[in-house]
Amino acid sequence: MITRILQARLPLMIYTPVKVFDIPYCNAIYAAGALPVFDTEFLTRQDILQKTAILSKENISFGLGKRADIQSGSSGAAGIKNQ
């Protein structure tokens, strides 16, 4: 469960470093009350699917920073909540 540590409507989100996938780091972010966001900007589609599947087995909520879509030029983050 995310603990409110700031008086804001949105949770504190912490992106993982570029090209870094570290389960203990994501667990520590979540345990500290923030939402870990897995940055996928420079990863291949296969890496994204594989690592997201691994992360989804953890008992935490996390965000997914999607890589930029070259055709539409859009990028952003999506939230994922495990129950």
Any overview of this molecule?
This protein has a domain at 13-68. 25% of the residues lie in helices and 22% in strands. It is built from 2 helices and 4 strands. Strands 1-2-3-4 form a 4-stranded mixed sheet. Strand 1, helix 1 and strand 2 (35-39) form a beta-alpha-beta unit.
Tell me the total number of β-strands.
4
Query: Radius of gyration from the CA trace?
Result: 13 Å
Give the rounded overall mean pLDDT: 79
Shape: globular
Strand arrangement across the biggest beta sheet:
1-2-3-4
How do the SSEs run, as a string of H and E? EHEHEE
Helix content: 25-40%
Oligomer: single chain
**Are there runs of 5+ residues with pLDDT below 50, and where?**
70-75
Topology:
Blueprint: E1 13-15, H1 23-31, E2 35-39, H2 45-56, E3 62-66, E4 76-80
Parallel strand pairs: 1-2, 2-3
Antiparallel strand pairs: 3-4
Features:
83 residues
Quick recap of the structure?
This protein has 83 residues and is an alpha/beta fold.
